[in-house]
Design brief:
- The complex is a heterodimer.
- Chain A is mostly helical.
- In chain A, 74% of the residues lie in helices and 3% in strands.
- Chain A has one domain: ABC transporter involved in vitamin B12 uptake, BtuC (Orthogonal Bundle), CATH 1.10.3470.
- In chain A, strands 1-2 form a two-stranded antiparallel sheet.
- In chain A, α2 crosses α9.
- Chain B is an alpha/beta fold.
- In chain B, α11 packs across α12.
- Classes of the chains: A mainly alpha, B alpha/beta.
- Chains A and B meet through α1, α9, α10 and α11 of A and α2, β7, α7, α8 and α9 of B.
């Protein structure tokens, strides 16, 4: 029943739909890597991003590019506010990691509720139409959404990696991620680096929500459910490993979709939880090459030790 | 001689006042027939709940404007459930124990199920208006529904596909939750019973954002018709992907698909999609036409979930008819007499949803309106069970 066309179609569509997951996972992993924070408030930023684009296109009747720019500006402003008013204030007060974690959930729920009051519970999309025309390439259906989605995601991720590898600010981020106290001793402005991580994450999720919202309907609670995949990819990819999160998001998407070839469709959604369970129980540091496992393990122990002992010391 | 202190005199005065108010209240209550309405006015479902309450309030106002129930006022006590079962129980308890109503109207399957013991234990009638879980038929002696349960429209669409459209091979694509599983089962049974064959049954996760895998399996089975049982939030995307993957067969669905936005979101890809409506539309009834026009005039839009609001508009008319019958026969009003009289009348002719006959199994059977997207708008294809 399943020929090469079906397999290739599944692979292609999985790759295309993995784009927004890659962006959400990278944003989540970046903030976790730099600030050591499980930032579930990312869902709030995602919700703000989507509804800003929605307002731009559907209420203000702006063209898509203008709504995109508006969305980026508003999302970056929201990320700035979240870092400066929320996280920075909490760090200054030396609250526990658990408290910050709870705070991120409250922010997400608060924004979801606010969105519900303003925009209602009817699902919305960025553009009025979500049907994208299709071109057949050797019997593989490629929609007009696929290539721009893949192109923009690859460009965004490549830009992020280049930024972290080749720019001074990017290296500061890596420095703070490796050892925030030592980085500060070397004169790196930790506040600035934390803010930068939040802003980059904001830009990534904004792009992700724009892609998602041009293809599927969004409800005020949608962002939180999309976050589950990002968290799974971050854990499976290895906490602190951005490349791992990207790869895990792509591979998880492909495996989940391709699984239909060998298992009944009702088990498809269950697979994500199986992977997550296995990763947490057997690979808490993520699936990594043996060569790098030792270094990462010690880094994780160091992070855990710092968080458990003196959160105040990290300011 | 007993001498009361100042504190005791105050207490006596307070008790006397309360008693006087209670007597006044009792006297007032005799001039009005009261029933409860417990709906989500806040929370995630408020968008629908508020419109449904508005519809019921309009109906009560119309009834009272036309002289009430034998000259007495019909009073509706509205309480907020947030569509939350726990809060629903609190509200039902208040209606039953404090407000002492003989009947109350509520909706949302989880709430209807949760408050059923309150209704049964206190012998107060619970009318479910809008919830469609098949379990509602088995919730006890005092729980009835005026809204057709889930299997009615699915059975109608399956029967129509096999018997009237002549489709021999069907595929079912459904969301993997209680509603989807039950509906897929009903569709399969009815389609098969009418001579058809289900060649593929595929499901997708409620959190899924891509449906390629299940849809390719459906494509490989090459059905004549595809039945989609999804949610309002995922149905347009699933249909879009079906068309993108070259599935050009007719697609049937249920009431979740019946909204103008589906056509806006899918454009030409929506052509041929069949959905159901459990209430007549504006083209079928002048009363519905006037009702929709009133929404446009007063609220400047159509109500959210138009058919549901039609049922809610009709609920006070049904309650008023029962009160009237009790009053005509001089029977004291309480939950037991209300239930008895409701079953004695059994069939009600209601303004916006037509004839409503309560079945022995606590459900109602209503005609199902099959709607099809043709030329970029919803048009009536057929009425099943008229």
């Amino acid at each position: 029943m399943f020929d090469a066309t079906i397999v290739l179609q599944i692979l292609w569509t999985s790759l295309a739909t993995a784009t927004y997951y890659v962006l959400f996972a990278t944003a989540f992993a970046l903030v976790l890597k730099v600030t050591r924070l499980f930032n579930f408030a990312q869902a709030a930023i995602m919700t703000i991003a989507f509804y800003t684009a929605f307002v731009g296109v559907q209420w203000l009747k702006w063209p898509g590019w203008a709504a995109f720019v508006l969305m980026m500006v508003v999302t970056l402003a929201a990320s700035y506010a979240l870092e400066r008013i929320g996280f920075e204030a909490l760090r200054r007060r030396g609250v526990s990691v658990m408290f910050v974690f709870v705070f991120t959930f409250i922010v997400s729920e608060f924004i979801a509720y606010l969105a519900m009051l303003i925009f209602g519970t009817w699902p919305q999309t960025v553009f009025p139409m979500i049907f994208w025309p299709v071109t057949l390439v050797g019997n593989i259906a490629i929609s007009a959404w696929d290539l721009p989605a893949i192109g923009s995601t690859v460009a965004a991720i490549a830009a992020l990696f280049a930024f972290m590898r080749f720019t001074r600010l990017g290296q500061f981020m890596v420095g703070v991620a490796d050892n925030p106290d030592l980085a500060e001793l070397y004169g790196i402005n930790r506040r600035l680096v934390f803010l930068l991580a939040m802003l980059i994450a904001g830009a990534l999720v904004a792009l992700g929500m724009f892609l998602y919202g041009t293809r599927a309907q969004v409800l005020p609670q949608t962002a939180l459910s999309l976050m589950l995949f990002a968290v799974a990819a971050t854990i499976i990819g290895g906490i602190g490993n951005l490349g791992g999160a990207v790869a895990a998001a792509v591979i998880l998407g492909v495996i989940q979709n391709a699984s239909i070839l060998v298992i009944p469709s009702e088990w498809q959604g269950f697979l994500l939880y199986v992977f997550l369970f296995l990763a947490i129980v057997f690979f808490p540091n993520g699936l990594r090459l043996p060569r790098r496992r030792e270094r990462f393990g010690s880094a994780t122990r160091k992070i855990a030790g710092e968080e458990a002992s003196t959160p105040e010391s990290r300011g | 001689m007993v001498v009361f202190g100042r504190g005791a005199r105050r207490l006596l005065a307070t008790v006397a006042c309360i008693s006087a108010f209670a007597l006044c209240g009792s006297a007032l209550a005799q001039d009005a027939f009261r029933f409860g309405l417990a709906m989500p006015l806040t929370g995630s479902q408020a968008l629908y709940g508020q419109d449904q309450v508005k519809a019921a309030e309009w109906a009560v106002a119309e009834i009272n404007k036309a002289g009430g129930v034998n000259g007495k006022k019909l009073e509706m006590l509205v309480l907020d459930t947030q569509a939350d079962p726990q809060l629903g129980i609190q509200m039902a308890n208040r209606l039953v124990s404090v407000e002492k109503v003989p009947a109350f109207v509520t909706a949302w399957s989880a709430v209807v199920k949760a408050v059923a013991p309150v209704a049964n234990d206190n012998k107060v009638v619970e009318l479910s208006v809008g919830a469609n879980s098949p379990d509602i038929a088995k919730l006890g002696d005092y729980v009835y529904t005026t809204f057709p349960l889930a299997d009615i429209d699915i059975a109608a669409v399956a029967k129509y596909a096999a018997a009237s459209m002549g489709k021999k091979k069907a595929a079912i694509v459904y969301i993997n939750n209680e509603t989807g599983i039950v509906a897929a089962d009903v569709y399969k049974k009815v389609f098969t019973a009418n001579g058809g064959q289900v060649v593929a049954t595929e499901t997708y996760d409620p959190k899924a954002t891509d449906f390629t895998g299940p849809l390719l399996k459906v494509r490989a089975a090459n059905p004549d018709i595809i039945h989609l049982q999804g949610l309002v939030s995922d149905t347009p995307q699933v249909i879009a992907q079906m068309r993108q993957l070259g599935l050009t067969q007719p697609i049937s669905s249920y009431s979740a698909a019946f909204n103008p936005k589906l056509i806006e979101q899918l454009g030409a890809a929506a052509e041929g999609v069949i959905a159901t409506s459990l209430a007549p539309g504006a083209d079928d009834s002048d009363k519905v036409k006037a009702y929709v026009a009133r929404w446009q005039k007063e609220v400047n839009r159509e109500p959210n979930g138009l058919p549901y609001t039609q049922y809610l508009y009709d609920a006070p008319y049904m309650v008023a008819a029962i009160f009237k019958s009790l009053d005509d026969k001089k029977i004291p009003v309480n939950g037991e007499s209300f239930r008895k009289e409701m079953l004695a009348i059994r069939s009600f002719d209601l303004p916006l949803t037509g004839k409503t006959a309560l079945g022995e199994d606590h459900t109602v059977v209503k005609p199902v309106y099959l709607m099809e997207v043709k030329g970029g708008k919803w048009t009536r294809k057929a009425v099943v069970g008229e």
